[in-house]
Design goal:
Layout (H helix, E strand, L loop, with lengths): L10 H17 L4 H37 L9
């Protein structure tokens, strides 16, 4: 198992890698050392995915707040 850098890794790529890590661990074919490395990588990928989801959720909230505010018309002009 090779550790890949997740700098700049897309959510979809990180999720796909996480799914593969889980499948590898569930197979029962990994050594103890490889299982530990897979667990560590899985935790990193999970943190990356959660961070990206949190960021997107915050952006959606900001957009929704801005879109749902009534448009103020200045009648003085």
């Amino acid at each position: 198992m090779t550790a890949k850098s997740h700098k700049g890794q897309s959510f979809e790529a990180a999720l796909a890698e996480l799914e593969q890590v889980v499948a590898d661990m569930e197979s029962g074919k990994l050594s103890l050392e490889d299982s530990l490395a897979a667990y560590k990588r899985g935790a990193e990928l999970l943190q990356l995915c959660r961070g990206k989801l949190d960021s997107v959720q915050q952006q959606v909230s900001v957009l929704e707040e801005g879109a749902l505010k009534p448009f103020a018309v200045d009648d003085d002009k």
